[in-house]
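Re: that chain you flagged

S.,

Sorry for the slow reply, it's been a week of failed gels. I finally had a moment to sit down with the sequence you sent. For the record, here it is as I used it:
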Amino acid sequence: MTELLSDQRIDEALQGLPEWRRAGDAIERSAELASFPQAIEVVNRVAERAEAANHHPDIDIRWRTVTFRLSTHSHGGITEKDIALAGEIDDVITDV
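Prediction finished late last night. Pasting the structure tokens below so you have them in one place:
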């Protein structure tokens, strides 16, 4: 069963995810891509991974800047699912 993470565990996890920051009951990061099509490519790749994990981020696209926000809404906060998907999102952004 998925459990909410303690503040300490979230802080530890964010040390390994330097582009991410805590935002209340979520974690988030923004990435500025080289172009709008590249931003959309990142979103599409993240969508595939999110669908496979059955865990979906909130996504905001502003021209070539994409912001991802992760929270396990069914649990009301941050879980290991969010930490894992954050790492997947980082991989996608790095690979583009």
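What I noticed first: The mean pLDDT is 97.

Talk soon,
D.
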